[in-house]
Amino acid sequence: MFRIVGLPLAPFAPLFALPDQALADRGARRVPVTRVGVAPCRVSLADARPGQSVILLNYPHLDDPASPFRASGPIYVSESARDHAPDVDHVPAMLATRLLSARVYDGSNMMIDADVMEGETLAGRLANWFADPEVRHVHLHAARRGCYLARAERD
């Protein structure tokens, strides 16, 4: 059993009120969404819709100084985001409709497996990975651009 977890809204909410220059000073950008499927929100785990704005910023998704796999990368957070309440064994449409790269980590944040798959197969793959007691969490990325999308955890 697994849960796919989004990022909490609270650390990003103050960014929404900042003017564009203040965002730029922090290495972030406000981006208007013009097409469906181009701005997956890492908080709500849903694609932002055309007409909405998102904040594009760098995020340390594996912020463990003891791990050689420490990593950060760009993420989108929708200005209309709400915290995602993860369901057990459910894959949000944002993930199910994308080509994904999965990176599997143990309790020491060492990568012990990885694969690329169609999102529609993710639930089965997660069930198999979490059957191994060594697996602690799985990071999900957009396979083509490499951006961090979400984290799957054992339930």
From TrEMBL:
<dbReference type="Pfam" id="PF06718">
    <property type="entry name" value="DUF1203"/>
</dbReference>
<dbReference type="InterPro" id="IPR009593">
    <property type="entry name" value="DUF1203"/>
</dbReference>
<protein>
    <recommendedName>
        <fullName>DUF1203 domain-containing protein</fullName>
    </recommendedName>
</protein>
